[in-house]
Design a protein that fits this description.
This protein is 42% helix and 16% strand. The chain is of the alpha/beta class and 308 residues long. It has an 8-stranded mixed beta sheet with strand order 1-2-4-3-5-6-7-8, with helices on both faces. The longest helix is centred in the N-terminal third of the chain and has 18 residues.
């Protein structure tokens, strides 16, 4: 999820609406759930400019689509590890981004022998345009991808998850379905979308009642209120080990979100703050520290799992 996409958008919408008389709850709801998606080319260029992605192009890749629970088509890519392995990780990008938004994390897993499954979230990348539900439909999509990955590559593979921002929230939410994965790494995810939107509305200097009004409007438009978008609730029954990473300077999705989820999960969890990192900047701010956090976590996971 890109901070400026929502904050500046809400502020801009707020200025226009204030000029005409108050604000439109339906306009606000539509704006909040509208996906301003990047193209694959835009996302790849951004990654190339900020990270060393030279490892990606020579790798063998397989592109395919899967059908989700409601027959929505999702575009997926398998990035094969050069060495044959039964280890797989599904990497999930953030809001407005697409599959290439996960390249900055991929090398960590490739170096450990993982095959990487990357995909475009609903409404992003090559997928048909639609609105976001901030983890509700998205987690059901991820569940279908997990099931498909096991069908394609084997029920006995070691399969883990890694998500950023909306992808992190989606990863937390899917654990409520008990999908049978071995681990989850969650970077700067939200525990509930309510606290993120309330902060954005406050920063845009809109009335606090804007949240309730927009939430009610979204219930009418899309069938879900913003109060329902709570990945943290899925963790009450979760036993999958979780590694939370969050930028200590994140003022968009504040670190308390990860802290709350780390405390809420039924299973093992660990919490790491990256000093000086803003939203979705942790791996950019401290790449070596980030890699060590993930590797140490995976060492513990793999020590309890026979892998090839």
């Amino acid at each position: 999820m890109r901070k400026n996409s929502v904050v500046k958008g809400i502020a801009g919408v707020g200025g226009v609406l204030a000029a005409v008389a108050g604000f439109s709850s339906f306009g606000m709801a539509n704006y909040i759930t509208k996906i301003k998606a990047q193209t694959l080319e835009e996302a790849k260029q951004w990654q190339d400019e900020h990270y060393d992605t030279s490892f990606y192009d020579p790798l063998e890749k397989v592109d395919y689509t899967i059908s989700s629970y409601d027959e929505y088509e999702l575009h997926v890519e398998l990035v094969k590890n050069p060495d044959e392995s039964n280890k797989y990780v599904i990497l999930t990008h953030g809001y407005t981004d697409n599959r290439f938004g996960t390249l900055k994390y991929m090398k960590i897993y490739l170096d450990r022998g993982y095959n990487c499954v990357i995909w475009d979230l609903r409404g992003h990348g090559l997928n048909r345009k639609t609105y976001t539900t901030y983890s509700i439909r998205e987690s059901k999509d991820l569940l279908m991808l997990i099931k498909d990955t096991k069908r394609r590559y084997g029920e006995n593979i070691l399969l883990g998850l890694h998500g950023e921002s909306l992808g992190s929230a989606t990863t937390a939410a899917v654990l409520g379905y008990e999908p049978g994965v071995e681990f989850a790494v969650l970077d700067c995810g939200f525990a509930d979308i309510e606290n993120v939107l309330r902060l954005a509305i406050k920063n845009a200097k809109l009335p606090t009642a804007a949240f309730e009004a927009a939430s009610g409007a979204n219930q009418i438009i899309h069938g879900n209120s913003f109060y329902e978008m709570r990945p943290i609730d899925s963790l009450r029954i979760n036993s999958v080990p979780m590694c939370f990473i969050h930028g200590a300077a994140d003022d968009f999705i504040i670190p308390d979100n990860s802290k709350r989820m780390a405390a809420a999960t039924k299973g093992y969890s660990e919490m790491h703050l990256i000093e000086g990192a803003g939203h979705a900047e942790s791996v950019l701010k401290d790449p070596e520290g980030y890699k060590k956090i993930v590797n140490d976590f995976l060492d513990r996971i793999e020590a309890n799992k026979v892998v090839e």
